[in-house]
Amino acid sequence: MAVEEIRGVVRGTAPVPLSVLDLVTVGAGSTASDALRTSVALARRAEARGFHRYWVAEHHSMPGVASSSPAVILAHLAAHTDRIRLGSGGVMLPNHAPLVIAEQFGTLEAMAPGRIDLGLGRAPGTDGATAAALRRTDRLPDGADDFPEQLAELTRFLDDDFPDGHPYGRIHAIPGPVQGSSPGGVQSPHRPPVWLLGSSGFSARLAGLLGLPFAFAHHFSAQNTIPALDLYRETFRPSTVLDEPYALIGVSALATDDEREARRQVRAAALNMIRLRTGRPGLFPDPEEAERYELSPMEEEFTASWTNNIVHGTADEVRSGLDDLHKRTGADELMLTSHAHRGELRLRSYELIADAYGLPTA
User: Fold this and answer.
1) Which DSSP category does 94 fall into?
2) How many CB atoms lie within 10 A of CB 308?
3) Of 48, 72, 270, 322, which sits 20 to 30 A from 153 (CA to CA)?
4) Rounded CA gap, 31 and 247, in Å?
5) Is the pLDDT of residue 137 over 90?
């Protein structure tokens, strides 16, 4: 595994590599098919403009998010792109058998050799009832209890190196390294690099101890960003994957031609989050609906806090905000997620940001 697959390339005047996180947002009045077409268009534009990687998140039972099956979406995106790295941001490991993930991402690696990242999270990506349905059990242990063991099992399947005598020693994730060691085999031993995702200190510490790259969800846990990054760097141990820490942060960023439009879309994003956190998830609301909605005092407070963590405005304002965030966190990479009611606004946001940093135009 080449370190270059993890460490991105800085392009234009950006302070660090820039990447994309896609939740496949479904706005009111549009369909999941519309959202997925936007994702294809966005991945192609991100590739053309020099963004380093394009990740898809796993969420369930949320009408406004059509990314319940990252592996399926990534296969589709792989067929429509040529160079950009594609990955999960992330697959929620407790929801799946490690062997299944190893098979899915081994298949993706075979489809797009050298372009696949496997980002893993320990949260369910949904509510408890949906998590129980996914796992076919109502006994949901704390992810901190068994996540390291699940991760170790998944890594063994990816590397095909269970020790002698292990119950899974005769089981192989296919496509995978065992094909290269079989008679006549020419299967590449390469496998996707594993990233750990987190919004608190648990995964930061684990990523550091294992010498893995780390992705922090600044976009919804901004208050924990610097403590988690500090913990990751303090606990980091060099590994065969990395000789020094490498951390990216997910950042909500929306650039528009009109500053007022950015404010309208961000208010709609806040309303969307209010509904999600109060057990009323729906399609991403249009700005007109958000403007009509009367916020309670508590909702007003939440909206102010939520929007304060979204870098938004004109292209110059967003560039300035991203530069400042990089200086404050020392992140090695910025992964941008843009939330807007219409797909064309999301596409335009990334174009404006790319222009602001002088990224390639073709």
Assistant:
1) G
2) 10
3) 72
4) 34
5) no
